[in-house]
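Hey,
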Amino acid sequence: MVNSSSTNTPGYRVEIEHNGDVHYYIAPRVGTISLNGVGQQSSSNSGTNGAAKLSGETTKNLYHHIKQCEPFNKLTIETCAKSVSFGLSLKLTYNGQTTPDLTYPTNNTHLANLAKVANSVISELKI
């Protein structure tokens, strides 16, 4: 699962194994600071790596909804305008396939359920 980041939030990558083991990387936060009236980019030098464990229920639910959505290349979504500064994307990759952006609204029940589960994963991991 990859979150692209936005102006106010760092991006992250989460890898979830079938047994619920999780490895994640949260990118360093980048922002603009003013130094003597001149805007300069600022960032911490490194991101955060970590490991966690998802509950069995969340892991099972995630993989169930992944299977419901396969093959990902057959999924269609409605596109919508996103803020350049605050817009972010959330995509899930499984077996070499990548979902459409899970932050877009969709009429596809399976994809909507996968987006809900992805958000519950993020919530459970407190990312």
